[in-house]
């Protein structure tokens, strides 16, 4: 079974109302249509979408388990905040999971078609910015690149975990890009090192290259989020002795 982030998944006609409500709400949260701190009620969503409350309630329960919303007693739900500490933890998990996936994929090897597609997706210079009108397209290309590697090692649980991490990271990346849309330096070179190691079937080199790239991404994301006015204007407390 191929595991991939929600951004790459197609919605089938047979999808239940609950699944459709879940995906729609999740996409609105990830794409920042419902930003962190946004508050709404089950009834409001059901009425706006012409649904009964039951599928919306079930969708919100799933989103709560995902950590994307939190119930507020007698006031509905609130979209979960983004904190630097949680982002750092998530990025560290990404490094551990993707590093191992890259090593497994390099050891097992990819098909000719997968190798060619990985090489094609490696080039991501675009027009010098991550942000802009082509952000969705670039995110899909990036996630396809990562999905090939995540699934290439043949470990279903590892690939599934990486897909789940990317669902969480997508919201953070979209927020970071709004704050700092520029293209980070050495991005393409770092991706090329990953591809080279996988194509040459060098597991340790693939692990090291992937870890180097994901740690760079961690710094880029945290640096961008640190420019938020909400961070800049937060008082610094003196720690207790």
From TrEMBL:
Which UniProt keywords are given for this protein, alphabetically ordered?
Answer: DNA-binding, Transcription, Transcription regulation
User: Could you tell me which Gene3D superfamilies the record lists for this protein?
Assistant: GntR ligand-binding domain-like, Winged helix-like DNA-binding domain superfamily/Winged helix DNA-binding domain
Q: Kindly indicate whether the keyword DNA-binding belongs to this entry.
A: yes
Q: Where is the HTH gntR-type domain?
A: 15-82
UniProt keyword annotation of Protease present: no
Q: Which InterPro entries match?
A: GntR_C, TF_FadR/GntR_C, Tscrpt_reg_HTH_GntR, WH-like_DNA-bd_sf, WH_DNA-bd_sf
Q: Please state what the protein is called.
A: GntR family transcriptional regulator
Where does the signal sequence lie?
none
